[in-house]
Amino acid sequence: MPTILAIESSCDETSAAICRDGLVLSNFIATQSVHEQYGGVVPELASRAHMQNIVPVVDKALKEAGCLLSEIDAVAFTQSPGLIGSLLVGGQFARSLALALGKTLIAVHHMQAHVLANLIADSKPSFPFLCLTVSGGHTQIVLCESPTRMKVIGETIDDAAGEAFDKSAKLLGLPYPGGPLIDKYAKQGNPHRFSFPEPQLTGLNFSFSGLKTSILYFLQNAGKSHVYKETFTASEDEKQAFISENLADICASVQHRIITILLNKLKKAAVETGIKDICLAGGVSANSGLRNAFEDLGKKYGWNTFIPAFEYCTDNAGMIAITGYYKFLEGVSDPLSVPTSARAEW
Ligand code: KG4
Ligand code: ZN
């Protein structure tokens, strides 16, 4: 009955979780509100907030799980990728704790953990499965053959899906992070009112930068054209009036295009691999339009579909704990000298 204590600190959430015998008993997440006023995550402030949060967060995860430090078999932590200062705070804490307790240390790849968040619920995908991981920093289709063997078979060549949502929201004057707001307004809008272009990219890779540019021109022309003009046809006042009169339809149409870009590639990956167990992961899988369209596609093509519970979609230590658990079962034990890195190979 291995018990894993896990720490996640790759960006702006300080999180700790306890997993015993494959069950996540606690998953405590401290969100850093300090970044709101800056419209994005400020790395230096994130590291400082992790320093303040890490001890109480670990304490809360242990208490919530009714677990003592002496009962821990291994300490798992996010090794990469992420903000280097943030990763170092969680990583050094984990290394020190493993050293002090004389327990196994397990370094975890954050993106692999997003995929394995699908193994937390009772209903789990069978191997091999496909996972579309969509977050603020990544957009990937991963072929997962076992908890420790996976490969990226498609990824974005420019912006991530979350960035596409957030940058579109910014163009509409919505605050950061705008993804959840686009989701909210889209519910009242017509997704077919405005048409945005789908990139003509062969293979399984994604691109979102063309969509962003097209939205920019579309707004600067107050909806009259998607193409660049030396002098835009709308004044700033006309542009703002167009946005406020059509916000729901614009949000629904933008969201619809992001979803079709994502799901058309996922469908292609499913056909090419013949795999029918298909998962979503990452913060953008909270998007209600994406969830519904994914489930509909699953029904149409006979897939077994899986989406982690919301708390395991956004950054969380529960996913690090379940990954640490499977690595522990496979005998993984990392030295205290294991490096932390902002970028990571698979
Ligand atoms: O995985 P995540 O929590 O953090 C990382 O990037 O690692 O993902 C955050 C991203 C942000 O871009 C946010 O706008 C987006 O997920 N997001 C959403 C929704 N909820 C979160 N995007 C669209 N609709 C949502 N409901
Ligand atoms: Zn993440």
Structure, explained:
The chain has helices at residues 43-65, 84-101, 110-116, 161-171, 179-186, 209-220, 236-273, 288-301, 317-329, and strands at residues 3-8, 13-20, 23-31, 74-80, 104-109, 129-134, 139-146, 149-155, 277-281, 304-306. With 346 residues, the protein is of the alpha/beta class. It has two domains: 3-118 and 311-329, Nucleotidyltransferase, domain 5; 123-307, Nucleotidyltransferase, domain 5 (2-Layer Sandwich), CATH 3.30.420.40. Strands 3-2-1-4-5 form a five-stranded mixed sheet, with helices on both faces. Strands 8-7-6-9-10 form a five-stranded mixed sheet, sandwiched between helices. The model has no long low-confidence stretch (mean pLDDT 95). 5'-O-[(R)-(carboxyoxy)(hydroxy)phosphoryl]adenosine binds next to helix 4 and helix 5. Zinc ion binds at residues 110, 114, 135, 315.
> Which ligands, by name, code or SMILES, are bound?
5'-O-[(R)-(carboxyoxy)(hydroxy)phosphoryl]adenosine, zinc ion
Which architecture of the largest domain would the CATH scheme give at its second level? 2-Layer Sandwich
The residue fraction in helices comes out at 40-55%
Whole-number tally of structural domains: 2
Shape: globular
Major sheet: arrangement of strands: 3-2-1-4-5
Major beta sheet, specifics? 5 strands, mixed
The CATH fourth-level homologous superfamily of the largest domain: ATPase, nucleotide binding domain
Strand % is 15-25%
Number of strands: 10
Instruction: Write down the secondary-structure element order.
Output: EEEHEHEHEEEHHHHEHEH
Task: Report the uncertain regions.
Answer: none
Number of helices: 9
Overall pLDDT confidence:
95
The N- to C-terminal Cα distance equals: 29 Å
Oligomer class:
single chain
